[in-house]
Specification:
It is built from 19 helices and twelve strands. By secondary structure, it is of the alpha/beta class.
Length: 503
């Protein structure tokens, strides 16, 4: 067999690796205020547990690896770094529900153990490490952090935490979330200790050329704690949607031909142009907005009209809004949304205002709220706009009764959602081709005009060349799809039909 006939092994999928280091000292039983009055005072551990449910759900949806380290007088691994799957999720959730605070705080030992879960066989630490604590270290026996105080015979025997967490060649994101602030015992995190650790970590990363991002954020309310641990933008599908793999070939062709109309007539389908232009916006300024980091889209699939379990526990007040919305109790949904507005990112709030208004037949109000959501979406980093933008564009096409645009955006959004976990590389390639299809809208118009004008002729030639190039890319992807995934097959068929309509 010739060398070039040998089968090339597939590129391994690199999945996210996350470890949460959670304080389970006795002080975590203390309550946190809720400035909104929606939830009332909740114990720190209850808020943290709710956030962990949400983190686990996201890990299960994206195929990420997740591990949990807890610490009291000692640090221990509660959940080893593992791929969160549907089969093991209930078992892990039951472990989380049994977490009970007690004892003191071995913070440095907890961070070191969390780094060990992310440590590769070659020694470097790779992944995301999140520490949540409400106090200061008073129990670590193996590790020590930077301090201005002279070392004692006992502390000098402990291991320096900084190089242990950040060995050479590491790629680590370390986020420290401190609950409260105070130098007195049980009054909050010791900000002096934490800022000292952050400075030492950043200094080592800079000096050794290590890829590391280290941040420290203090929170004082249950709202802030939940938002900093995990922030969500959830959505549910629209009625009448059918999975790609369930469509008969004739139905798939009909959908693709309808979607192609949105590509062929830019002036009649402004939502697509709007979606495309927003992807090209520059990054927002560094001081644009405050509060949680960009939202992520999370599509909830209803099975027989029922919602996933633990919705309220995983999503907090937004879960309650969705519950009322699915029950078609729109007045309650809007009331809950209003009461929870201080807990939610503005983008999430405006989007759900638009969904509820539209469900009630209030088209003008829905359009107004959606416009505000678009403005908030523009403030996201470029890499976060794609998925959010498709959700907004899908609602906008519904409000405008634009079935061609709705079909096109729904196709891409569904493809991304279904493939991003099991076929992330394929999902990324299809997203790139979708962008290429949008670019064809301009050259298609030139190709239709015709005539002897040199620029028009060059535009038509460019269009045909682009079409052929994209056809080639689709065929390359089809050859790679050796598993014959039905979603991928349907997506490729859909795109080829759209492309044929663009000739």
């Amino acid at each position: 067999m010739l060398a070039d006939e040998l089968e090339v092994p597939p590129t391994p999928v690199v999945r996210p690796r996350h470890v949460l280091v959670l304080d389970l000292s006795k002080s975590m039983l203390a309550p946190l205020p809720d400035p909104t009055g929606v939830q009332g005072e909740r114990r720190k551990i209850e808020v943290a547990r709710t956030a962990v449910y949400r983190i686990l759900e996201n890990a299960e949806a994206t195929g990420a690896f997740f591990g949990l380290v807890t610490f009291t007088d000692t640090a221990r691994v509660a959940v080893p770094l593992t791929e969160i799957r549907h089969e093991n999720l209930p078992y892990i959730e039951s472990l989380i529900s049994m977490l009970t605070p007690s004892g003191r705080s071995a913070i440095w030992d907890g961070i070191a153990l969390g780094a060990d879960l992310l440590r590769k066989p070659s020694g470097e630490v790779v992944g995301t490490l999140v520490l949540v604590t409400d106090g200061w270290d008073n129990a670590s026996s193996r590790f020590r952090a930077p301090t201005d105080e002279p070392l004692t015979p006992e502390t000098s025997r402990r291991i320096d935490l900084v190089p242990h967490v950040l060995p050479n060649a590491s790629q680590l994101t370390l986020r420290i979330i401190g609950i409260g602030s105070g130098s007195e015992r049980d009054k909050g995190v010791d900000s002096g200790q934490m800022n000292g650790l952050v400075g030492q970590m950043r200094g080592r990363a800079t000096g050794a050329g290590i890829a590391a991002e280290v941040t420290y954020q203090e929170v004082a309310t249950s709202t802030d704690l939940f938002a900093q641990m995990v922030n969500s933008f959830i959505d549910i599908g629209y009625e009448g949607a059918r999975p790609l793999e369930d469509l008969h070939p004739e139905e798939l062709a009909e959908h693709a031909a309808r979607a192609a109309k949105a590509l062929k007539a830019p002036n009649e389908h402004a939502t697509i142009t709007q979606l495309r232009n927003r992807k090209d916006l520059p990054p927002p300024p560094a001081d644009a907005g405050t509060g949680p980091l960009p939202s992520e889209v999370d599509v909830l699939e209803l099975q027989g009209g029922t919602l996933p379990p633990h919705l309220k526990e995983r999503y907090g007040p937004l879960g309650e809004v969705v519950e009322a919305f699915v029950a078609r109790d729109y007045a309650t949904a809007m009331n809950r949304l209003f009461r929870a507005q201080a807990l939610l990112p503005a983008l999430t709030r405006f989007y759900w205002e638009a969904r509820i208004h539209y469900a009630r037949g209030e088209v003008v109000e829905a359009a107004r709220s959606l416009l505000h959501a678009w403005v908030e979406a523009d403030r996201l980093p470029p890499e976060a706009r794609g998925r959010i933008g498709r959700r907004l564009a899908l609602l906008q096409s519904r409000i405008q009764n634009d079935s061609e645009t709705e079909t096109l955006v729904r196709f891409m959004d569904e493809t991304q959602h279904r493939l991003e976990r099991k076929e992330p590389e394929l999902s990324h390639e299809l997203d790139g081709i979708f962008d290429r299809l949008l670019e064809l809208r301009t050259t298609y118009q030139l190709a239709r005009v015709g005539g002897s004008d040199q620029s028009l002729m060059e535009g038509a030639i460019q269009h045909e060349n682009s079409v052929e190039e994209i056809f080639g890319l689709l065929q390359d992807i089809r050859l790679k799809n050796t598993q014959r995934d039905p979603v991928a097959d349907g997506a490729l068929d859909f795109m080829e039909i759209c492309l044929a309509e663009m000739r």
